[in-house]
Design goal:
Structural class: alpha/beta
Strand order of the largest sheet: 1-2-3-5-4
Largest sheet: 5 strands, parallel
Helix content: 25-40%
Shape: globular
CATH architecture of one domain: 3-Layer(aba) Sandwich
CATH superfamily of one domain: Thiamin diphosphate (ThDP)-binding fold, Pyr/PP domains
Order of helices and strands: HEHHHEHEHHEHEH
Number of strands: 5
Number of helices: 9
């Protein structure tokens, strides 16, 4: 629920010359819902999620659909892969979506340093900063604010926005897509401030919903709160 506004905004702008890597691959259901809404997969494919015969499991699998170009879910790898792809294909755009808890991985910061040194302006990193990870609040484990401040003091542009504000996200995407191969721009990292469980009162800011399965009565309440039929 924290990342779906980011994904829907990204896919509203995405073209065939742009590749999206969902590094926080455990959010695959948000991705599949967006892909269903843009017609890339069918309702039946979405409905088969996690069935024995389904092409979709707990994490994105390369080749399962046109948009999934890399298998992700082993956290800390997506940005490094995106850096390699962006360096190899300067004529193409790449967007990597990360979790804030994922930035606990040292490989993420190595990738940011690589992104900065090689001025990979054709790569946009978006951090879903919902301030929670699997077992606790991110700030109680390893906060993100100090490392991001260090990035901001280097040649990386930090854009701090409301990750549920589509217009704010789209504005940053327009800036990114208008960067040319020979521009003097610097790479951008979007720090998208989000709420885990956004829109559902009993899920918002509650760490247990990182894992917990929803009960039927809770599901009905959630749909009511979201205004869904």
């Amino acid at each position: 629920m924290s990342v779906v506004d980011i994904l829907s905004s990204v896919y509203s702008k995405k073209t065939d010359s742009c590749e999206v890597i969902l590094s926080k691959g455990h959010c695959i259901l948000a991705l599949l819902s967006v892909l269903k809404n843009i017609g890339e997969i069918s309702h039946e494919q979405l409905d088969s999620y996690y069935a024995a015969s389904s092409q979709f499991g707990g994490h994105p699998k390369k080749g399962s659909t046109a948009s999934v170009t890399w298998s992700t879910g082993s956290l800390g790898h997506g940005l490094s892969v995106a850096c390699g792809k962006a360096m190899a294909r300067p004529d193409k755009k790449f967007i990597c979506i990360l979790g804030d808890g994922e930035t606990n991985e040292g490989s993420i910061w190595e990738a940011f340093l690589f992104m900065r040194q090689h001025r990979l302006c054709n790569l946009l990193a978006i951090i879903d900063n919902n301030r929670q990870e699997s077992l606790d609040k991110t700030d109680n484990i390893l906060g993100i604010d100090a490392p991001v401040a260090a990035l901001a003091s280097s040649d990386i542009r930090i854009a701090r926005i409301d990750g549920h504000d589509h217009m704010a996200i789209l504005k940053e995407l327009d800036i990114f897509f208008n960067i040319t191969e020979n521009s003097d721009s610097f790479p951008t990292v979007i720090l998208a401030e989000t709420v885990k469980g956004k829109g559902i009162s009993f899920m918002e800011h509650d760490t247990k919903w990182h894992h917990r399965k929803i009960a039927d009565s809770e599901y009905d309440q959630a749909l009511t709160e979201l205004g869904a039929s």
